[in-house]
TrEMBL record:
Name of protein: LD-carboxypeptidase
Database matches in SUPFAM superfamilies: Class I glutamine amidotransferase-like, LD-carboxypeptidase A C-terminal domain-like
Keyword terms, alphabetized: Carboxypeptidase, Hydrolase, Protease, Serine protease
Tree of life domain: Bacteria
GO biological process per UniProt: proteolysis
C-alpha cells in the first residue's frame, strides 16, 4: 500500500516542535527554533518539550500527549522532533491509531530514536515521514550544519527540488541498482521493533540503515537478529550511513552479513549521526544506484 504524501510547507505555516526521547537543552532548542522562524515558519512548542523525568523529556504520558496534540492540531502543518537518545519506544502503546489515522497528514522529521515513531506512523497513519536533522541537534543549529539544515527545509518547502540525494564519499559494497520504496532507519531501533505491530519487513523495499557507537560484535548481533527474523527477506537494496563512532571494520560486518542477500549495497551515505546529514523521505519510491552513489526519488515526497 502506498503511503500518503502530506502537503508541502508554505511560508507562514505553523509547525510543532516536540521531544519524544531524552531531555532537551534549552539553548540548542532556542537556536533551532530561530532557524525555523528564519525560514518563515511559525513555531509552536510542545507543552512538555522542556520537561524532565529522569533522563527523558517528561513522562511517557507527557511525551505521548505532545505528539498527539501536535499531530491532531489541523493548524500545525509539520512536526519536528527536538532530539533523539532513547524513550520513544516507551510511549508507543499510549498513542491511539484511530486518532492519528483520522487526523490531517503532515510531515514528521527526525532520526535515530525517532525511527520508532516513524515506523508507528507508517503502520497506523499510513503516512510518509522524513529521516533528517533534528531541531536541537548540532547539525541543525551550528554554522557548519547550515547546508544540511537548509537542505532539510528545502525538502519540505520544495520537494520537487530534492529528488536526487547523493553522497560523493559513499562506496559500493555490492554493485547494482534497484527501485522500491525506502524503509528503515536506525539499525538498533529496527531490531528493537521486531515482534511488534510496527516491526514490518523490508520485502520489496530499499533499506536505509545507520547507527552510532557500536562495536562490531553488536552490529553483527543486530544484523543477525534481523536476518533470522526474516526482516530482510525480499529486500531490493541497502543504503547505509557512515557508522559514526562504530568500529573501523563495520563495513566488513555489513558485507559479511548482508552481502549474501545478493542485492546492491551502498555504504558511507550521508545519513544519520555524522556531521553531514541528508534528509531522506521514508515510504516513497526511489532508485538506488551504487555507481552514481545516489538515491533518486521517482516523485516528490510531499504533495
Amino acid at each position: 500500500m502506498s503511503l500518503i504524501r502530506p502537503p508541502r510547507l508554505q511560508p507562514g505555516d505553523r509547525v510543532g516542535v516536540i521531544a519524544t526521547s531524552n531531555a532537551v537543552a534549552l539553548g540548542r532548542l532556542e537556536r533551532g527554533c530561530e532557524r525555523l522562524r528564519a525560514a518563515g515558519l511559525d513555531v509552536v512548542l510542545g507543552e512538555h518539550v522542556l520537561a524532565q523525568h529522569g533522563p527523558y523529556a517528561g513522562t511517557d504520558e507527557q511525551r505521548a500527549a505532545d505528539l498527539t496534540a501536535a499531530w491532531c492540531d489541523d493548524s500545525i502543518r509539520a512536526v519536528f522532533c527536538a532530539r533523539g537518545g532513547y524513550g520513544a519506544l516507551r510511549f508507543l502503546d499510549r498513542l491511539d491509531p484511530a486518532v492519528f489515522a483520522g487526523a490531517r497528514p503532515k510531515p514528521l522529521v527526525g532520526f535515530s530514536d525517532i525511527t520508532a515513531v516513524q515506523r508507528w506512523l507508517a503502520r497506523h497513519a499510513n503516512v510518509v515521514t522524513f529521516y533528517g536533522p533534528m531541531v536541537a541537534s548540532e547539525t541543525f543549529v551550528s554554522a557548519a550544519g547550515a547546508p544540511w539544515a537548509d537542505a532539510m527545509l528545502r525538502t519540505l518547502f520544495a520537494p520537487g527540488e530534492a529528488l536526487e540525494l547523493g553522497s560523493p564519499g559513499a562506496r559500493a559494497l555490492v554493485a547494482g541498482a534497484a527501485t522500491g520504496p525506502v524503509v528503515g532507519g536506525n539499525l538498533n531501533l529496527l531490531a528493537s521493533l521486531l515482534g511488534t505491530p510496527e516491526g514490518g519487513s523490508a520485502a520489496g523495499a530499499i533499506v536505509l540503515l545507520e547507527d552510532v557507537n557500536k562495536e562490531s560484535h553488536r552490529l553483527d548481533r543486530l544484523f543477525t537478529q534481523l536476518l533470522r527474523a526474516g526482516w530482510f527477506d525480499g529486500a531490493l537494496g541497502v543504503v547505509v550511513g557512515t557508522w559514526e563512532g562504530c568500529d573501523p571494520d563495520a563495513d566488513d560486518v555489513l558485507r559479511e552479513r548482508l552481502g549474501p542477500l545478493g542485492v546492491p549495497i551502498l555504504t558511507g551515505f550521508d545519513v544519520g549521526h555524522g556531521a553531514r546529514q541528508l534528509t531522506v523521505p521514508l515510504g516513497v519510491t526511489a532508485t538506488l544506484d551504487t555507481a552514481a552513489r545516489t538515491l533518486t526519488y521517482t516523485e516528490p515526497a510531499l504533495a
